[in-house]
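Translate structure to sequence.
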């Protein structure tokens, strides 16, 4: 009886143990020099918003300083839902990768709060690139046309109602 129970436990255990297990290969962060080479973009940005998606988080960033790869002032970045640590309202030094036409803060990125990145910022200070000038939103030329259709429909409807009332009164006057 004991042997049968041991066999059952062994079979269940063998079925539940994964055949392949892997650990993260980013046990130690690379130097800032190596990180600068490995990543597509290096920026200091403020996290304006953190939007939770089904499998990830979406960070809305305002870029304060760019050292590589980015010239825009506003940016949307994907971050892993499980490992992401970015908090709204705080500035970070981000090391980003380009992925599927967008930006990603990858799992092993040496991203850290800007206040804790003094050594990295010393290395990066001579590599700063200019950001695009802050542009005022342009007035949309077709925006005034948005009111034309509803106003036209209201005028036509009003004319039909007015015409119907006049026609009804005129008919009523002939029948009396």
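Result:
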């Amino acid at each position: 009886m004991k042997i049968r129970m041991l066999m059952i436990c062994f079979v269940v255990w063998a079925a539940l143990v994964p055949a392949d297990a892997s650990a993260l290969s980013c046990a130690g962060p690379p130097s800032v020099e190596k990180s600068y080479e490995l990543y597509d973009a290096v920026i200091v940005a403020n996290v304006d918003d953190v939007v939770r998606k089904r499998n990830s988080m979406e960070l809305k960033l305002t870029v304060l300083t760019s050292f590589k790869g980015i010239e825009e002032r506003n940016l949307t970045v994907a971050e892993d839902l499980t490992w992401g640590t970015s908090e709204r309202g705080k500035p970070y030094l981000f090391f980003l990768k380009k992925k599927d036409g967008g930006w990603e803060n990858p799992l092993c990125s040496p991203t850290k709060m800007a206040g804790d990145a003094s050594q990295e910022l010393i290395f990066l200070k001579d590599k700063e690139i200019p950001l695009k000038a802050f542009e005022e939103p342009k007035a949309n030329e077709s925006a005034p046309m948005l009111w034309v259709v509803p106003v036209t429909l209201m005028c036509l409807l009003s004319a039909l109602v007015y015409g119907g009332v006049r026609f009804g009164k005129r008919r009523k006057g002939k029948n009396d």
